[in-house]
Write a structure and sequence with these properties.
Structural class: mainly alpha
Strand order of the largest sheet: 1-2
Distance between the termini: 83 Å
Low-confidence stretches: 143-147, 178-186
Mean pLDDT: 75
Largest sheet: 2 strands, antiparallel
Number of strands: 2
């Protein structure tokens, strides 16, 4: 009889311990992912500053890290590159998640470096350049950066030769009659 009681108590203790463990707070995988992203972005910021300093360039001249080359070096791109808005967008996401002013200041600086591109009529990729950066700002605020929201759209529209309303990257699309499909609006 004693054996049954002790076995039952041991099982109950094990059950209670497992229940408490299952209910205890654990670190969110989202939190750990943002912690990792934050550490990587801090490295990217430091590395980009070092590269610009070594090349005698300013943030306005080389605003965005784009990729890591096969030799392990970081590639920075000028504001006209179609990927230039991605990095500021990442900084805005970090600020949105953490609320840390460090990320806000970095995001504002890197976004501001792209301001000259809002009237760039030489690319159909203006949405990537502007929406990832300035679009992230306008999602969060109604402040000064929001004024940029219509200029890139006008620039894109102006870069498309009438009457064809396709971006230049979409060429050679033919209908069953052999003509290029067009639309009067974007």
């Amino acid at each position: 009889m004693k054996t049954i009681v002790y076995t039952g108590l041991a099982a109950l203790a094990l059950y209670v311990t497992a229940a408490f463990y299952a209910c205890s707070p654990k670190e969110s995988p989202v939190q750990s992912d943002f912690d990792f992203a934050g550490s990587q972005l801090r490295i990217a910021l430091q590395t980009a500053d070092s590269i610009r300093s070594a090349q005698g360039k300013t943030l306005a001249e080389l605003p965005s890290p784009r990729n890591i080359e096969p030799d392990g070096s970081m590639r920075l791109v000028d504001p006209t590159d179609w990927c230039s808005g991605f990095f500021p967008g990442e900084l805005w996401y970090m600020y949105e998640y953490t609320g840390d002013d460090f990320w806000k200041h970095q995001a504002e600086a890197y976004t501001g470096a792209l301001e000259s591109q809002q009237t760039n009529r030489g690319t159909h990729d203006i949405g990537f350049m502007m929406y990832c950066s300035y679009g992230s700002v306008s999602r969060r605020t109604t402040a000064t950066k929001r004024c940029c929201s219509k200029a890139p759209a006008r620039s894109l529209r102006a870069s498309i030769p009438p009457p064809v309303a396709f971006a230049r990257g979409i060429t050679g699309v033919r209908t069953s009659r052999g003509s290029i499909r067009s639309s009067s609006t974007i």
